[in-house]
Amino acid sequence: MNVIAQQGDTLDALCYRHYGRTQGAVEAVLAANPGLAEFGAILPHGTAVTLPDIAAAPVRESVQLWE
Known about the structure:
Order of helices and strands: EHHE
Distance between the termini: 44 Å
Radius of gyration: 15 Å
Number of strands: 2
Number of domains: 1
Strand order of the largest sheet: 1-2
Largest sheet: 2 strands, antiparallel
Number of helices: 2
């Protein structure tokens, strides 16, 4: 999927909006978009960013101490 960066967008914000998380997603997007990191923290308005398909985050089992 391709998205276009809006004014003030950061890569981690794009990843969070699309994937619902940033861990592992930012790295995958940077790998799919050579040269994207050279833009810096805030992406220029109109920058095309490819968002690859990534595996879903593993679900952590929770433990309740008191029931």
